[in-house]
User: Fold this.
Amino acid sequence: MRRFDSLPVRSELRSLVLAGLLAATAVLLSGLSVPVGPTRCLPFQHAVNAVAGVLLGPWWAAGVAFTASLIRNLLGTGTPFAFPGSIPGALAVGFAWRLLGRDWAALAEPLGTGLVGALLSAWLVGPLLGRTVTAGVLVPAFLVSSVPGSVLGLLALTSLRKVGLGGDRDRF
Assistant:
């Protein structure tokens, strides 16, 4: 009998399965949120973004963030701010990993979320919802969530490496 890991499985399928698991993890942990103004801060979403960006790359990670945001909004555990509050952070980690090739690229998540995501939220999402929310309010709120989340993501990656999982990104 052949072992599962010796079966010829395309890397796209592995990426899809891992992306699905990560999106599901973000949705399951979305109950652990902290309301800050019109947003809900979810450090675990940012941890998932960090893991996805390192293990899957920017585009798959953005897909994970989009999927989790969509499901959370459909379930009522998220707000429209979830989209710009997660996708830019996932992209930032993925691109940082491409540039640096190190797990600590996970710490780039607050740059995408805390700066780009907050600005997009203030300039696009807030007005679309009929709310006046300034970047001065959203940047600190998003950083309060994304900084600890990116550290949790880095710790998760370190733990995965220690137990022999999450090896070379090319395997996914």
Notes: The two ends are 24 Å apart (CA to CA).
